[in-house]
Amino acid sequence: MEAIALEAKAAMEKTINALLAQFNTLRTGRANASLLDRVMVDYYGEPTAVNQLASIAVPEPRQLLIKPYDKSDIKAIVEAINKAELGINPIAEADVVRLQLPALTEDRRKDLAKQAKKMAEESKVAIRNVRKDFLAMVTDEEYTQDLKKRIEADMTKVHDQIIAQIDASYLAKEKEILTL
């Protein structure tokens, strides 16, 4: 495989890793600390991730327990969770914030599956753009026609593999979301 195709593959794999990280932030039927990855707390004027201000535990299958390192941050954490619109109401206690995840309704599960599909489609567009950008680099006169065709064939093969991985990841996430 040509070096340029390998570079494109590396760039495309970064897109897949980003997609998988986005998938982790989608809520399924059970509690997962990565649900709070997108929640940013205003910490002395700086947006800071919750997991940097507190430890996050999963004591029960549908409950998250956030224990701030500094108890004075509880109010800011509750505020940030409410702003994030996760569909979860935080309960502030003496030294922890408790998140009780309600059971997902069928409509909510379908909405989450649609969000996952949208994320997957956006990733596919990003993959196509990477392919297009790398193919644009090959149009120079320094490449022969045969070499251009070989690079294009390699890029198409890599592109198809990555798209198949995205589809498989999406189907797995959709199944996880829709499973009761």
Provide a short characterization of the protein structure.
The chain has five helices and six strands. It has 180 residues and is an alpha+beta fold. The strands form two sheets. A four-stranded antiparallel β-sheet has the order 3-4-6-5. The protein has a two-stranded antiparallel sheet with strand order 1-2.
What keywords describe this structure?
180 residues, Topoisomerase I, Chain A, domain 4, Gyrase A, domain 2, 2 domains, two-stranded antiparallel ribbon
Description:
With 180 residues, the protein is α+β, with helices and mostly antiparallel strands. 57% of the residues lie in helices and 16% in strands. The protein has helices at 3-24, 50-53, 74-83, 106-137, 145-178, and strands spanning 40-43, 46-49, 54-60, 63-68, 90-92, 97-100. Strands 3-4-6-5 form a four-stranded antiparallel β-sheet. Strands 1-2 form a two-stranded antiparallel sheet.
Secondary structure blueprint with pairings:
Blueprint: H1 3-24, E1 40-43, E2 46-49, H2 50-53, E3 54-60, E4 63-68, H3 74-83, E5 90-92, E6 97-100, H4 106-137, H5 145-178
Antiparallel strand pairs: 1-2, 3-4, 4-6, 5-6
Structural class estimated from helices and strands: alpha+beta
Largest sheet: 4 strands, antiparallel
Order of helices and strands: HEEHEEHEEHH
Instruction: Provide a count of the helices.
Output: 5
Principal-axis shape equals: elongated
Number of strands: 6
Give me the CATH architecture of the largest domain, please.
Orthogonal Bundle
Q: Give, in spatial order, the strands making up the sheet with the most strands.
A: 3-4-6-5
- How many whole angstroms does the radius of gyration measure? 21 Å
- Helicity level: 55-70%
CATH class of the largest domain: Mainly Alpha
| Poorly predicted regions | none
What share of the residues does DSSP label as strand, in percent?
15-25%
When the domains are counted, the total is: 2
Q: What name does CATH use for the topology of the largest domain?
A: Topoisomerase I, Chain A, domain 4
Report the CATH superfamily of the largest domain.
Answer: Ribosome-recycling factor
